[in-house]
Amino acid sequence: MFKYNKVRNFLFKRNLKLFKEEYDWDYKFLKSPYRKVKTVLNLEIAAILIFLVSNTRIKANHVTFFGVLWVYLGTFLIATNIYHLVYLSLVIYFTKLIPDYMDGTLAHLKNEQSKEGFELDLWAGEINKLGLITGTIIYIYNITNNNDYLYILIIIILLNIIDPRKHLSRTKFGISIYKKKAKTHLQKIKKNKNIIFNFLKFINFDGRTNYSDFIIFLIILDLEFDINLLLILLPWLWLFLNFLILIRSKYLVFFKK
């Protein structure tokens, strides 16, 4: 039987080492107070939930799948266009990383680590990204009543579906390895040093938490102050960038040796 202190200590130790060694994040309050507070909050909640499920038959992959359902519950709630439910959806989006913190730690505690589980995490990340994009664009459609946003949403989803790199083995573009120190699988991807490429990658939404929080902030600005100019421009930006991503994917898969 797992004890709470053991679960919490392992969760924090594992993730803080991962932040520092793999993502070069200096975990200090003064250097990044917002990230520090949010991460500690999410880890504390994750520790409690891991403790509650660690002595049950719930597996890490079940938690991963729940994480997807959690995000799409947020998408459903935001689509209702009901003020309080929209805020509830933002809370769900804000906490979407909690299942991600949970599944890797739970897999280690139950000795269920596997490459398949890591690839399932990658799949969940892609699906959750589309879920948050869908929720954001539907919210924008609700406040503008502009059908163009529904067309944009459909096209973005189609572009992701027909992207060949989404359906090929990840090992063609990034090698999945297990790092003992970090106690997790990681994807080793070659970094592109092109400034323009990195800028376009930065402004495109790929599901990363800072970008998600930025979207949440823009929606709150609209809810409370009717400020939405930047918010309603985002889908157009994403549409353009997803076209570029598809073109690059086609090149990498079919033409680059």
List keywords for this structure.
257 residues; mainly alpha; Four Helix Bundle (Hemerythrin (Met), subunit A); two-stranded antiparallel sheet
Characterise this structure.
The structure is a single chain. This protein is mostly helical and 257 residues long. The chain has a single domain (4-254), classed as CDP-alcohol phosphotransferase transmembrane (TM) domain (Four Helix Bundle (Hemerythrin (Met), subunit A), Up-down Bundle), CATH 1.20.120. It is 71% helix and 4% strand. It contains ten helices and two strands, in the order H-H-H-H-H-H-H-E-E-H-H-H. It has a two-stranded antiparallel ribbon. Strand 1 and strand 2 form a beta hairpin. Helix 1 (4-23) crosses helix 5 (98-109) and helix 4 packs antiparallel against helix 9 (209-225). The longest helix has 30 residues, at 115-144. The radius of gyration is 19 Å and the shape is globular. The termini are far apart. The model has no long low-confidence stretch (mean pLDDT 87).
Query: What structural class is derived from the secondary structure elements?
Result: mainly alpha
Mean pLDDT, to the nearest integer, reads 87
What low-confidence regions span 5 or more consecutive residues with pLDDT below 50?
none
- The ordered H/E elements are HHHHHHHEEHHH
- Which bin fits the share of residues in helices? over 70%
